[in-house]
């Protein structure tokens, strides 16, 4: 069965809510899903997944230090994440507060691992991944679900290739 891992950091719950919606979408697409707070995620979670979706709040225009630390730690599994499918989501306080640069920073790490990245073509989404400004509204939650679903479906095709 295709495995999708959702790892997120969240202080006030907005990114956490998005993570649950991403997980719901991946499950609805038929994947087995594990959702972990970044503090609880291990490198084995990354290597054991076919699809990996990372979410962090936008802090000073980029991802939070907690998520950056997790990505930096993944250097220890360099070479083992190749061809896994990845996507990103973020919550920011302001619509122009750096949510897109946060998504690109999250994606950058995945590209360096040789992963295959899923974007977001939905009008309610955020082009480079799912974006919420503050608490995610119904449209954002749908974008998160669709993103999770597409990661699961694509991982079934290319994951571990
Ligand atoms: C330390 C800190 C820095 C932040 N920097 C930004 C920022 O640069 N741009 C922005 O739009 N929001 C910024 N915010 C607001 C958060 O991105 C926003 O409240 C987000 O929804 C929090 O997500 P969470 O509920 O998952 O913790 C910042 C919040 C904190 C605590």
From TrEMBL:
Obligatory cofactor(s): [4Fe-4S] cluster
One Pfam family linked to the record: FMN_red
Listed PROSITE patterns: FLAVODOXIN, FLAVODOXIN_LIKE
Domain of life: Archaea
Alphabetical list of SUPFAM superfamilies matching this protein: Flavoproteins
Transmembrane segment boundaries: none
InterPro entries for the chain: Flavodoxin/NO_synth, Flavodoxin_CS, Flavoprotein-like_sf, FMN_Rdtase-like_dom
Residue span, Flavodoxin-like domain: 4-161
Alphabetical list of PANTHER family matching this protein: FLAVODOXIN-RELATED PROTEIN WRBA-RELATED, FLAVOPROTEIN-LIKE PROTEIN YCP4-RELATED
Family under the similarity heading: Belongs to the SsuE family. Isf subfamily.
Protein name, as recorded: NAD(P)H-dependent oxidoreductase
Phylogenetic lineage: Archaea, Methanobacteriati, Methanobacteriota, Stenosarchaea group, Methanomicrobia
């Amino acid at each position: 069965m295709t495995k999708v891992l959702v790892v997120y950091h969240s202080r006030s719950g907005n990114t956490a809510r998005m993570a649950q919606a991403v997980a719901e979408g991946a499950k609805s697409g038929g994947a087995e899903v594990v959702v972990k707070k970044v503090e609880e995620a291990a490198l084995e979670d990354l290597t054991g997944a076919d699809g990996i979706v990372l979410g962090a709040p936008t802090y000073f225009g980029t991802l939070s230090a907690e998520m950056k630390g997790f990505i930096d730690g993944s250097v220890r599994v360099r070479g083992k994440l190749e061809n896994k499918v990845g996507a990103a989501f973020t919550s920011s306080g302001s619509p122009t507060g750096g949510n897109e640069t946060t998504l690109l920073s999250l994606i950058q790490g995945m590209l360096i691992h040789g992963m295959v990245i899923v974007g977001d073509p939905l009008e309610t989404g955020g082009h480079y991944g799912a974006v919420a400004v503050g608490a995610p509204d119904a449209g954002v939650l749908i974008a998160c679900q669709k993103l999770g679903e597409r990661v699961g479906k694509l991982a079934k095709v290319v994951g571990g290739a």
